[in-house]
Amino acid sequence: xxxxxxxxxxxxxxxxxxxGLVVVLAVAGPAIIRTDPLKMNPVLALTPPNAEHxxxxxxxxxxxxxxxxxxxxxxxxxxxxxxxxxLAGGLGLGLVSGAAGGTVDLLVMRVVDVMMAFPSVLxxxxxxxxxxxxxxxxxxxxxxxxxxxxxxxxxxxxxxxxEQPYVEAARALGCRPRRVTLRHILPNIIAPxxxxxxxxxxxxxxIGASLSFLGLGPRPPIPEWGVDLSNGxxxxxxxxxxxxxxxxxxxxxxxxxxxxxxxxxxVLDPRLRSLTNL
Amino acid sequence: MLVSLQxxxxxAIPVVFGVSVVVFAIVHLLPGDPVLVMLSGANATxxxxxxxxxxxxxxxxxxxxxxxxxxxxxxxDLGRSIFSKRPVFEEIATQLPSTLExxxxxxxxxxxxxxxxxxxxxxxxxSWLDRLAMLIALGGVSMPSFWLGLLLIFGFSLELGWLPATxxxxxxxxxxxxxxxxxxxxxxxxxxxxxSFLEVxxxxxxxxxxxxxxxxxxxxxxIGVQLGNLLxxxxxxxxxxxxxxxxxxxxxxxxxxxxxxxxxVVLVSALGYVLVNLLVDVSYSLIDPRIRHRxxxx
Amino acid sequence: MPSRRLLRQLTPWxxxxxxxxxxxxxxxxxAAKAGGRLVFAARQDIDTLxxxxxxxAATRKILLQFLDTLVVIDPKxxxxxxxxxxKWDVSPDGKTYTFHLRKNxxxxxxxxxxxxxxxxxxxxxxxxxxxxxVARSFIGxxxxxxxxxxxxxxxxxxxxxSPFLRMAALAPLGAISPTAMQKLGxxxxxxxxxTGPFMVKEWINKxxxxxxxxxxxxxxxxxxxxQGPAYLDEIQWRFVLEAPTRTAIIQTGEVNVAEDLSYADxxxxxxxxDVRILRGVPAGTPWTIYPxxxxxxxxxxxxxRALGYAINRDAIVRVVFHNESKxxxxxxxxxxxGYAPLAKEIxxxxxxxxxxxxxxxxxxxxxxxxxxxxxxxxxxxxxxxxNNGYEEMAPLIQAMAREVGMDIQLREQPRAQMEEANRxxxxxxxxxxxxxxxxxIMTTNFHTKSLFGFNRPRLSNPEIDQQLDQAAAMTAEGxxxxxxxxxxxxxxxxxxxxxxxxxxxxxxxxxEVKGYRFNVVTFPILYDxxxxx
Lengths: 278, 298, 533
Hints:
The structure holds three protein chains of three kinds.
Chain A: H1 2-32, H2 64-100, H3 102-116, H4 120-131, H5 135-162, H6 165-172, H7 177-213, H8 225-231, H9 240-268, H10 273-276
Chain B: H1 5-29, H2 34-39, H3 46-56, H4 62-74, H5 88-123, H6 128-142, H7 145-159, H8 171-201, H9 208-228, H10 230-240, H11 246-256, H12 259-287, H13 289-293
Helix pairs in contact in B: 1-12, 5-6, 5-8, 5-9, 5-10, 5-12, 6-8, 7-8, 7-10, 8-9, 8-10, 9-10, 9-12, 10-11, 11-12
Chain C: H1 4-31, E1 37-42, H2 57-66, E2 71-73, E3 80-82, E4 85-90, E5 96-101, H3 115-126, H4 134-138, E6 142-148, E7 152-157, H5 164-167, H6 178-184, E8 198-204, E9 208-213, E10 234-239, H7 243-252, E11 257-259, H8 263-270, E12 275-280, E13 287-291, H9 301-310, H10 313-319, H11 343-346, H12 351-360, E14 364-365, E15 371-373, E16 376-377, E17 379-385, H13 393-403, E18 407-413, H14 415-423, E19 429-431, H15 441-446, H16 462-473, H17 477-493, E20 498-501, E21 505-510, E22 513-514, E23 517-518, E24 524-525, E25 530-531
Parallel strand pairs in C: 1-10, 1-11, 17-18
Antiparallel strand pairs in C: 2-3, 4-5, 5-7, 6-7, 8-9, 9-10, 11-21, 12-21, 13-19, 13-20, 14-15, 15-16, 22-25, 23-24
Helix pairs in contact in C: 9-12, 16-17
């Protein structure tokens, strides 16, 4: 058991380190890069990775590495923002539904069931088609489509925790329902929620990239991993590095997030594994 | 939530209604005159606009419109696609079988790969085998499907020439697109299979049947998730591989703002999801009698 | 070592096989041509199969296979040759065309093709069918037609219309069956009926159109290389929107022909022994973008001129076209009569001149490098169509404009929505390019009466209108072309259009495909195609 945890820890440390790096790049990136990610240099178009351009240049002569670093911010913010929205909605609805019980619960869960009936990508598609292009709209769309998953999880855990002795005790002592919820229930369900949130970040980044592939993301020439990955698809033969850069960035980030999430889950409580499996 | 079949069914019905309300509302929630919105980009003559307006009767009270929508939907009249002018039902009927075929193959691959990877990992926990298997699985789920799809085309179709890249017909054409979707889910299956197997292997007497049965539950879950979210996996893959299907239909309907078609597609996919969930829940109770009467967490 | 007995038993069979083989062989080589199914990978999806509603080249290519036209144009010299019409005369005033039609021609539904059917076809183009289809544009100032007997058709125009002979060669003006049209109504757009060497079997939306051989076909046009029915039994016209996929499948052999291959992939494909690369320069207009002269800031002549000076065509040719084409300096393709590379002197690539022009007009650089005047940023909106061909050029031009202080915002829309936005004048930059055998296409691009159609610059200049009308009416070729050159000069001086790069058609054809031909606008002619086993 300890052996497994240690091994996981190593993986998680690696994951966390990678994530840390990505975050630093996202935040500080635009300040530290030397070339302009928008600058086109047709003479240098389609150069393979070399000393001066470690990730090569794209079909317009733009430095791929610079674009990957610059794109980190938008891609991460979209992913994080979506999860924040999903968390907010999920916590709001899930806590209320789980704690209140009865008709409220029934109603909320039916609404959630209806929402879950719409595949998240399709939901995101329709939202973006209505709201228009751009990463903010993609973020909202993905966030909204993830709310049902969060509600389900949070509500489920609230139901379990509600029956715990200390909660019963608090209620018996006459604490107001809101206080009970916030002070006693919330801290005890936080663990699986954190785990889900971490994994959801990975989902959001991928769904966001997919929406960009379908043409719904930010407009050119703004660098973003999904858009750049899509842009390179006509050059897989002659310029594989154009897609490889953002592709590897997405994969690395997602794998790192997943590793961290897995370890968080193991560390926080292995028993929770069954509660976070959806 | 209690798990008896009748109760499940009873709970599914309001969901179906809820879905129909949302689908109905799509067109009405948009800003502007719904008829003009529906026809924008379709190059309609004033006569066609008037005809559509008369046909749709958007001036009636919403409830009346909703009931009419429901009544028509029940008999399969989902209106006509604005672009192709064919009945929506027909459009969907043409595309659905291909998507089902793709989903079936994807599930097969996901289950097969997931089982293999998960069992391998469980047999020697924490060994390099375990780590490798999980890493492969992780890779599958971390790549955006369109990239994976394109890589598979260029790898197996172009470079190696083993498999065709596009079109319908024949099991060979199914492999690459199905693998693109399936490998993504293989990771989840592998992880669940691994933990279920570990639980069982820890016990004194290991009965293979028991172990497999235990592993079956997450597998069934994934099948349910995959089938239910049919559209999610297929949307990208059908575009990349130029395959007929609901996913591609959905994307083009949304981009074209072909609202009757969007409504039809969303309705069918949502109903499919509800139906599949029901079936999955039923199979749960069939597989594991313990679940039948236990109160689930979700 | 086989026993002697075995050999004795086998001998009669061996002899039989050899004899039969010898007899059958010559017949096999002769019969090898007919039959087979051709799979064609097309770049763009279609909106309809109705020749009078469509506005897409993608549809026109398919129309060409199942419709016949009155005449055909020889790509070698641009001359007009007989099709469904055997001979024709034009009245001296250029307003009346008389066609003497071929006899014994039938539609796919068995009804006879005659002057009445052709009249019906032309008249229908005038009815409001919703979309501004190209047929309406092509038929010009049409007034009426008259069927004189079964085999003579007289077509009258409101004004002299000299391009009409060339227009009559275009598929949207091909003959359709009145019986089928009246019977099918709305559904005609899904399964139209013509007289061509192939018939429409079915159209599976977003996927493919299936055409089958017309066994009764016996009236091939003058340019055809054989007579009688087509060789191919069936054509599967597949919509493969992704360029890398088209490249992949032409190599694996899943398709026999793949059009519009990615310029980046061509060099690699040439090395493939199974694939032949065919190139053609179509008549028509080059890749061109147009500023909206009615909407700020492109209503400012200085802004328009500056944008013209900012475009580096060499870079576009290198980066986007991988040197497969050349810079375009005329509003027409080099293979079109009236071609005149005037933009080279009037709107050359000169970024410093662009900056100077903007400075002088009061557009001063702002903090982010984008120019500002009266508190307004120099922002231009380019609404470009999805999969319309400009996707790769757009970011490059956007960067070039940025260099001189202009901010081009790119917005992608599906084709139909783009057309609508253009008609509502919501854009600052619009795009369109044509496959067309005559300079009168400039009327479709710049005339006031095209404002409801394809007039991207939203130009309404009475002088230009009058010159365009005049040029369309002139019968003498020399003076006519001179007038078109003059019009181009004026348009460039007003910076009403920016030709970018010449259109070059690149098609990949597998080695088993014989007889593939381009027509004058490099659309595929599949009538003479056969598949070698």
